[in-house]
Structures are given as structure tokens and as C-alpha cells.
Amino acid sequence: MLRPFSTLLLFTALTICCQNSYSNIDSLKKVLPQMKGQEKVKIYRLLSVKYTGINDDTALFYCNLGLELAKKEGLKESEANILIVLGNAYLDRGNYGAALESYIKADKIFESINNEQGMSTAAMNMGLVYDEQKLFDKALKQYNYVLEKSKAIGDKGRYASCLDLLGGLYYSVDTHKALKYWEEAAEIFKFINDIDRAMICIGNIGIIYQERGNYDKALANLRTFLDYTRKTSKQKGLVAAYHNIALVYRDKKDYPNAISYLDSCVLVGEKIKDFGGLSETYHTLHQIYKEQNKLDKALVYYELSTGAKDSLLGQTKHNELIEMSTKYQTDKKETENKLLNQQIELKNVESSRQQLAITLIGIILAIVAIVVFILIRQNRIKQRINSELAEKNHIIEEQHKDITDSIQYSKRIQEAIMPTMHLWEETLADSFVLYRPKDVLSGDFFWLEKTKDTIYFAACDCTGHGVPGAMVSVICSTALNRSVKEFGIKDTGQILDKVRELVLETFEKSESSVQDGMDISLCAINTKTLELKWSGANNPLWYLSDNEAIEVTANKQPIGQVDNPTPFTQHSIQLNKKDIIYIFTDGYADQFGGPKGKKFKYKQLKELLTTNASKAMSEQRDILLNAFNSWKGNLEQVDDVCIIGVRV
Q: Which of 291, 444, 446, 516 measures 20 to 30 Å from 472, CA to CA?
């Protein structure tokens, strides 16, 4: 699956260490013992930045040391800057709650000292958290706030960075807007001579052109990114560039060129041990050889892809945190020894004046020694407990990561069964698809198939959502494909009958009883006569003709196990040009929200569609999406959403 190149994580100007005289970790550690106050806080912050993304545990360690010292010295701005870096380290680990909490604390401190630039940075990073959690509206609100602020003060770098992030935000929902943002960001980055960021935007533009099937523009942009990456020797960038160019050639069915670039990708990936990039590359090679029916090679690269993924998951972090903890305890002990020596010197001075004072100091020192002994003992016990908890938390985090990675891989499989938006727009030019899964995986899916004179398409709602719904969706999508392509069935009612037969046949192989199934609205349009054949399982058809909204009801039975199954009915409708077809699942109408927290309902949905039917299909989709988000408000999405509109 194509994905845009990674955008850069943003810090405040004070946090950017690449321009500092301390160019590497060793030199920073070397000068650390000599520093005091604000300079020492600065070194802690720079070390945290250096370790973020390399060893997040060590980054968090230095962040906490910096925070402790900044609070002690009353350095508000330094404290806020450290909190930004702390949030970045949490974000890199996928701990979104802790990251957001750090950014909010930083924002409050920046606001208290009237630091507008710091407030913008905190807001932008909060947007990144929402972006990672797929909270589109919240991320958009943060980015727009920063965009306005940076434009008002003429901060071109931050303005371009915000455009870059907006491109990434819109990439999965509106490639037209994503393209616009990345093109503008690239021009500004060039103007301010930030060539690295400009090239990342150019690479992302190339990926969008690839998805649209404009291969010449895709290759032009991706080769520009590749040439720059070669000059700068950015090895991970080379892996991304080679792989994305290979994907263009794969789409063009130019397999020799695709394999050549993928071979280059493997050479660089193995050199830098980029197991994530290698896994993606091997998977693409597996797909190419499978498409060429070279099954032996396809199997080899499938196994290599799995092995690379296992290597990625098996990578361990550095043990430098233990070293840093030991050094911290050593420094602390040296401080205690200095204090003890001062007390002894004081005792020697006073001993010449009064013997009683010596006795009292001896008693005080004895008490202090007992207290120190107790504190040290308690601290050791606490450290042991914390170590055990840290080990358990690490195991839990690894298990959570394994589960998350499995779900993300399942998402790719589910997306592979659905038509790409490029294929959809090429087949049904004047149409829209509003698709909003409740979770990462979805029980809803949309389906498309074209024969000589007929275009088949459907909105499908499988039992449940998330992982169970996605599993059922794969079975049902496969049954639809087989019914049309393998069995050659044309009658929509008979297609649904065959799908039911194939689904039940699959479930019967299970030892346990499976009651899952699917609701569907299935259309077949003859492209020459404009005759519509339609059948439905529970979900209806709405169409607009001569400004009149007409509903065709479905058979009141699902695709699945029912007590008294009946054959599905095929309805024939003669359409005219400019008539509009709407098919959908129940997720939109069942969404709770509004001022009283009630369901949206079908009546309100029909009014919304008919009121805006004269507008462009893409505009209708935006209106539906905005109305849904406005109605939902802060409430949780209750079900997957899929609505399809097609103008004849």
C-alpha cells in the first residue's frame, strides 16, 4: 500500500540542536558535568532530542532530569521546552495520552509567560497526537489555529510546516486538498532554503500522482526526490524513493524496471538494517512475482517479508538507561559526601570552643546517618519494585505493539479487497464514496466490478465491526467476486442467492455455529441503455428522478443463516441522464448526537441528500461528512459508515 513520506516532528527553535555547537551525543555528555543552571537544562534537553526515536527510554530519562532542574531553578520557558521534548518522546513510543498531557502542560506555561511561538508549537504537536489517533476534526482545528498564527506573524517556516501536516492529514480523505497543501509547502520550503522538507513534500506529491494513475508526473517528482536523496546520502530516504518508484512501474506493468528499483531498495535496506523498509520491499516483490505467476519466487519473497517483519519486531533498545541511572546515583552520592565533609569541618571548628557542641553535633550526625541509611534502604527497595514494574510494563507494551501491528497488517489486507479510489473514479466518474470505519478495521466495505456493458457496485454491511466485522467482510467480498467473475451470474437477485450459498458454505466448515452475515444494496447499471438492475438484503435503494425521491425496499433477510430463506428479488428501473442513485449502510442513520443525543435517522438523511442533490458529487460528500461530524459532536461513533452516490 502506498503511504506518504514521513513528515518531520516539530520542536521550538530552542529545541533544534542541529545548529548547536554540540554536534553529537558524546560531546554533549562530555560538557554536561561542567554546566550549571540554565546551561545544564539546555544540555539535558539537547540529549533528549538526540535520543528521541533512537532510545526513547534514555530520552525520557534526560527529560525528567531537565524538568527537575528547571523547576528547581524556576526556569519557566526551559521547563515548557523540555515538556515539548518529553511529549515528543512519548509520541514516538505511541503513548498518546502522556504525549498530549505534556503538550497541554507546556501550552499553559507558554501562555503564562506570553510566549506566542511556544503556544503555536504546543498546539501543532497536539495536532500531531490527534492526527496519529485519526481524530481528524481535532487535528484540523489545531493545525488551522497554528496556520493563522504563523501567517499573522510572517513565520514562513512554521506556516509551511503546518501546510505539510495538513497534506498528511487530508491524504487519506481528500487527495485534491493534500496535493494543494504539499505543493504550496514545497514552494515555501524552497524559498526559505529548507530543501530537506521541500523534497519530502515533492516525494509525497509523486505518490498522489501515482494513485491517480498519472505515472509521468509521479516519476518526475519521485526521481527529483531520489536525486536529492542520493546527493545527501540519506539512506532511509533512498529506501523510500526506490520503493515508491518501483510501485509506479509495478502499476504500469513494467515489471523489469520495478524489480530493478526494488533490488536497489534491498541493497540499501540490508546495509542500514531497515527491517521495516525491507519487509515492505519483499512484500512488493512477492506481489509482482505472484502477478507474473512465478509462484516459487513469490513464495521466497513472502517468507523474506515475514522474516524482515519479525526482525523489526525483535529489535531491542539500548541499555544506556541503566548506565545513566548509575551515574545519577554516583553524582547524588558525591553531593552527600561533600555535605558530610562540610559538617565535619564545622564540627572541628566548633570543637575548640565548646565540648558540648561536639557532643550535640555527634548526636545530630548519628541521627542523620540513621535517616540516610533508612532512606537509602527504602530507595533500593523502591528501585527494585520500579525495575520489576518497568519490566512488566515493557512486556505489556511489546504485546500491545504486536497486537497493533497485526491489526494494521489486517487493515492492509481489508483495503486490498476494496477498489482503489483511482479505479472507482475511473469507472464511475461522477460519484462519491463516504467511508468512515468506526475502528481501524471495518465491517462495512464498498465493492466494484465491471463487465463488458455493465458496472456492478455495492454498499455492504457485515455483522459487527472491528476485527470480527473485517473477517466477515473478506469472506463476503470474495463471494461477490466469485459470483460475478467465476460463475458469470448477471441477475442481481441470483448474485445475492449465490453469495448467500458461498458464505454459508464457508461458515459450515467451522466446528462451531456461526450466525454472522451481511446486509447489502447491490446495483448493476447497463452503460448503454442506462437500465438499472437492483437487489437488496435489508438495505434499500434511493434514487432521484425529475426531482422526485423514490425508495425501493429490499428483501427483509440478510446474506447468511435464516430460518425460511427466499430467493432475492431483482428490480428493473429505467434511468435517465442526471438521475442520482444512493445506496448505504445503517451506520450514518444510527449515529447518536445532536442537541438531545438521539439517532440521526433515515428521514433526516433523505432530506439532506435531496436538498443538496443539485450540487457536485464531491461537494455532496463533504456536506455529508460535515453534517455527520457536527451531529456526532464529542460522542463516540457507534458503527461503521458507508454511503455511495452515483449520478448517471
A: 291
CB burial of 262-285 (b: ≥16 within 10 Å; e: otherwise) equals: bebbbebbeeeebbbbbbbbbbbb
User: Distance of alpha carbon 258 from its chain centroid, rounded?
Assistant: 27
- Which value, in Å, is the radius of gyration of the alpha carbons in the chain? 31
Task: Count the neighbouring beta carbons within 10 Å of the beta carbon of residue 493.
Answer: 19
Query: Whole-prediction pTM value?
Result: 0.43
172/366 Cα distance (integer angstroms)? 68
Rounded CA separation 575/532 (Å): 7
Alpha carbons 106 and 178: distance in angstroms, whole number:
29
Phi-psi region of 445 (alpha: psi -120 to 50; beta: other; left: phi over 0): beta
**Nearest-angstrom CA–CA distance, 638 and 648:** 32
In sequence order, what DSSP letters do the residues of 558-597 get, joined into one string? -BS--SS--PPPPEEEE--TT-EEEEE-STTTT-EETTTT
Which pLDDT score is estimated for 344? 57
Task: Record the cell numbers describing residue 198, joined without a space.
Answer: 521541500
Question: Of the candidates 112, 113, 107, 170, which has an alpha carbon nearest to the alpha carbon of residue 144?
Answer: 170
Per the prediction, the chain carries an average pLDDT of 82
Domains in the chain: boundaries: 1-153, 320-412, 418-647
Q: What is the pLDDT of residue 345?
A: 61
Most confident of 44-48, 83-87, 515-519, 643-647: 643-647
CATH code for residues 418-647: 3.60.40.10
Hunting for cell 550549571 — which residue is that?
36
Q: Which amino acid is at 74?
A: G
Instruction: Look at 47-51, 261-265, 292-296 and tell me which has the smallest mean pLDDT.
Output: 47-51
Over range 477-483, report the average pLDDT: 93
The residues near 271 (Cβ < 8 Å, ≥ 6 apart) are: 235
Q: Are 605 and 589 in contact (CB under 8 A)?
A: yes
CA–CA separation, 57 vs 375, rounded Å? 26
Residue 13, pLDDT above cutoff 50: no
Instruction: Report the CATH architecture of 1-153.
Output: Alpha Horseshoe (1.25)
C-alpha span between 29 and 5 (Å, rounded): 32
**d(C-alpha 48, C-alpha 25), whole Å:** 10
Buried b (16+ CB within 10 A) or exposed e, 548-557: eeeebebbeb
